[in-house]
Amino acid sequence: MNTEKSRSTLNVLFCIKKHKLLKSGEAPIFVRITIDGRRQEIMIKRSIPAEQWNQAKECSKGKDRTAKELNHYLDTVRAKILQIHSDLIKEGSPVTSEAVRDRFYGRNPEKHTLLGIYAEHNRKCRELIGREYTESTVEKFDTGINRLKEFITTCCGKDNLTLDEVSGQFIRDFDFWLKTEKKMQHNSALKHLKILKKIVRIALANGWIKKDPFFGIHLKRYEVNIEFLSREELEVLINKTFFIQRLEQVRDIFVFCCFTGLAFIDVLQLTKEHLIKNNNGALWIRKARQKTHQMSNIPVLTPARKIIEKYAGHPDCVDKGVLLPVISNQKMNAYLKEIADLCGIKKRLTTHIARHTAATVVFLANEVSMENVAKILGHANIKMTQHYAKVLDSSIMRDMQKVEMNFSKAL
Question: Which GO biological process annotations does it have (predicted)?
């Protein structure tokens, strides 16, 4: 018997085990259920002499009372299986042969929870630090689960949620809570929702839920102003004399990033193996970005080359086999704040501002083509690079000068 259910097929077949007879000499009867090609067997605690079984009709051949009672029981079992199958569909639960079997036996299937899946996701990501994820990325995942736990506890009055409790309304309420109670801006809240969406997709892929609660919810990032140093600010930073070694060292790493466009994690990982000389003797950095695995091809400009040479014999570089003595991102950002104060720079200096400065003031403002900047920065496409070009007054002025020339003659 076949029952169609949106691309899934249920087949119920009663059989006997001829070659596994009981001590009584009878053959045990079992049900083979097949859904989407996956089979499971259900033993129904009934048996019959093998010669009395009609496999074509899936019942006893007999006409006596015992045979009729057995056949009635088989009909009851079939009806129960069909009802279980129907119930699973109505509930939106995974419809599998295992689920039908477990429910027939009265077993309670494992209830997957939202925080349970999230925690397992974070655990696996933590084991992949250094290969597929950075430590800072996994820390963001940990922050994400902590925020979600807090929301579930304070707003849902529970310690956890089963997957069938995760609805579109739950997601919208979480978004609202992040923006109001946690005072997050839109893009910050969006990061939490994107991680949550990843967790939901894990559940969907495993068949633990059938409906996507994110359906109809659009996660659109707002464009924000890119912070970068002006040429004048960069020159002040380069020419500043520091009498504290740690500040000089952090300044040098920051300036190196300004002339290479490398992100903090990529500078941290930089070794001599990433330095390549071409046929003309020019020095290049070739390295896959940790974040996207896109290859960056970076000509080493003189300021960056001098910094590499300056730290060639530094004990940390020698011991770790790296090009530069990079400290932790947290400490570096703390020292950059101190450096900004000493240089009279009002902007909040962070390691990522150096990458923004490279893209805008060092490359695009000096008429390096968009395509080449994309290759230097390791962007997958120039759309990402165009975002930097939008903020440059100099590029706007350069384009508008052509308009000025065309119209000044006409007036």
Answer: DNA integration; DNA recombination
How far apart (Å, rounded) are the C-alpha atoms in residues 299 and 378? Answer: 13
Are 292 and 377 in a shared domain?
A: yes
pTM of the predicted model over 0.70: no
Are residues 123 and 73 located together in one domain of the fold?
no
Tokens of 169: 């309304």
Question: Which amino acid, residue 314?
Answer: H
Whether 40 and 104 have beta carbons less than 8 Å apart is answered as no
Tell me how far apart the alpha carbons of residues 209 and 203 are, in angstroms, rounded to a whole number: 6
DSSP of 138-194, one letter per residue?
HHHHHHHHHHHHHHHHHHH-SS--BGGG--HHHHHHHHHHHHHTS---HHHHHHHHH
Q: Do residues 366 and 235 both lie within one domain? A: yes
- Per residue in 142-177, pLDDT (tens digit) is 999 999 999 999 999 989 998 889 999 999 999 999
408 part of a folded domain = no
What is the extent of the structural domain holding 180? Answer: 114-205
What the block records as the tokens of 101 is 């079997």
Length of the chain as a residue count: 411
Instruction: Judge if 135 and 70 occupy the same domain.
Output: no
Do 168 and 85 share a structural domain? Answer: no
Query: Do 54 and 141 share a domain, yes or no?
Result: no
Number of structural domains the chain divides into: 3
Write the pLDDT tens digit of every residue in 372-400.
888 888 887 777 777 776 656 555 556 56
Q: Is 236 exposed, middle or buried (0-12, 13-18, 19+ CB in 10 A)?
A: middle
Q: How many CA atoms, within 13 angstroms, populate the side-chain half-sphere of residue 315?
A: 0
